[in-house]
Amino acid sequence: MAEVSLRKIIKAYEGGVQAVKGIDLEIDDHEFVVLVGPSGCGKSTTLRMIAGLEEITGGDIAIGGTIVNDIPPRDRDIAMVFQNYALYPHMSVYENMAFGLTLRKFPKAEIDKRVKNAAEILDITPLLERKPKALSGGQRQRVAMGRAIVRNPKVFLFDEPLSNLDAKLRVQMRTEIKKVHQRVKTTTIYVTHDQVEAMTLADRVVVMNHGIIEQVGPPQELYHSPATKFVAGFIGSPAMNFFPARLEEASGALRLHLPQDIVLEVPEARAARYRSYAGKQVLFGIRPEHLTDDKPTDKTNPAPLTLTPEVIEPMGMETLAHFKIDGAEISARLDPETPARAGEPLRLIAHMDQMHLIDPTTDKVI
Amino acid sequence: MSATAAEPGAPGIYHKAGSLSRERRWALWTAYASLTVAAIIFLAPPFYMLITSFKTSAEVAGMTGNPWLVRDPTLENYWAILANPMFARFMLNSIIITACVVALTMVISILAAFALARMRFFGSQVLATGVFLTYLVPDTLLFIPLYQIVGGLGLLNSIWGLILVYPTLTVPFCTWIMIGYFASIPKELDEAALIDGATWPQMLLKIFIPVALPGIIAATIFAFTVSWAAFVYPTAFVTTPDQMPLTIGVVSQLVRADTFAWGQIMAGALMAALPPVIIYAFLMDYYIAGLTAGATKG
Question: Do B197 and A104 touch (CB under 8 A)?
Answer without folding.
Answer: yes
